[in-house]
Amino acid sequence: MRERYGLLEMFKTPELAAEVTLQPVRALGVDAAIVFADILLPLEAMGIELEFAPGEGPVIHNPVRTRADAEALRVPDPEAELQFVLETLRMVRAELDAGTALIGFAGAPFTLASYMIEGGSSHSYVATKSLMYSDPGTWEILMSKLAEMLTGYVLAQAAAGAQAIQIFDSWVGCLGPADYRACVLEHSRRVFDALGARGVVSIHFGTGTGDLLPLMRQAGGDVLGIDWRTPLDVAWRRVGPEVALQGNLDPATLLGPREIIEERAREILERVAGREGHIFNLGHGVLPPTPVDSVKALVDFVHGYSTR
């Protein structure tokens, strides 16, 4: 499908996005589908000029750098301006059997703000942190608008058939606890509180966030997603045994032989030790060169282990 269609075309064509969402369920036997979309799609509706450039990833042509830039952003109506994502969810929910969950998702305020400020991917987040430190008023405007937009967007996803919402704060690991507490926590909490008030299950995921986990728990989420850098038993000690966790196999493991995949998966499951409140998953996304057979072998191993 990638050879026939561009990414934005697939995201914005519900029939195509629904097919891509369903493919891994059919091919791999996973227990849930996650809607095929991108965390940056709502930014277009806010007035951001977005392009998925070949070989470069997402590029933003009008980054947010000033107070005027932030004030000019719109807060869109998801039913009117992001209806293609909602229709994809409706189509997928109609196709899935009752025992297969459907997960919607969105980016967290900090990660979306960072994309908007940097203009694309970053390793240092210099522009983001510079604005956050030097112009807190503009930072507050930007984060407040993102939290408002995300609240409407994720609630619309839930109404369209998503039974859980995963919020990706993929870049927040670049912050220390003090900055997270001062500049991020309340804005993320606003989104999770809205989901909780409607009874929608939520998953709060970040990468490189081992030291931030207690604060992320404060921000909200019924489940905390853990990357591969923090063992699950260590994460439970940091956030409390009553919190559900998701994770956390290193995606690169799937590039290795089957015996390594099973060994590392077994190590994770042994750390869980049969306790309730664990969703087995990778610690981040599937890497492009990953063999499909390796993913299927992992799914089969986990299902088999779970029934012993």
The global form is globular
Strand order of the largest sheet: 1-4-5-6-7-8-9
The first-level CATH class name: Alpha Beta
End-to-end CA span: 38 Å
Low-confidence blocks of residues: none
Biggest sheet statistics: 7 strands, parallel
CATH topology heading: TIM Barrel
**DSSP summary: helix tally:** 15
What share of residues are in beta strands?
A: 5-15%
DSSP strand tally: 9
Sketch the topology as an H/E string, one letter per element: HHEHEEHHHEHHHEHHEHEHEHEH
Integer average pLDDT: 96
Rounded to an integer in angstroms, the radius of gyration calculated over CA atoms is: 19 Å
The tally of structural domains comes to: 1
Report the helical percentage: 40-55%
**Alpha-beta classification:** alpha/beta
Topology, pairings included?
Elements: H1 7-12, H2 14-28, E1 32-34, H3 41-45, E2 50-53, E3 57-60, H4 67-72, H5 78-81, H6 83-95, E4 101-107, H7 109-118, H8 126-134, H9 136-159, E5 164-169, H10 177-183, H11 185-197, E6 201-206, H12 213-219, E7 223-225, H13 232-239, E8 244-249, H14 258-272, E9 278-282, H15 292-306
Parallel strand pairs: 1-4, 4-5, 5-6, 6-7, 7-8, 8-9
Antiparallel strand pairs: 2-3
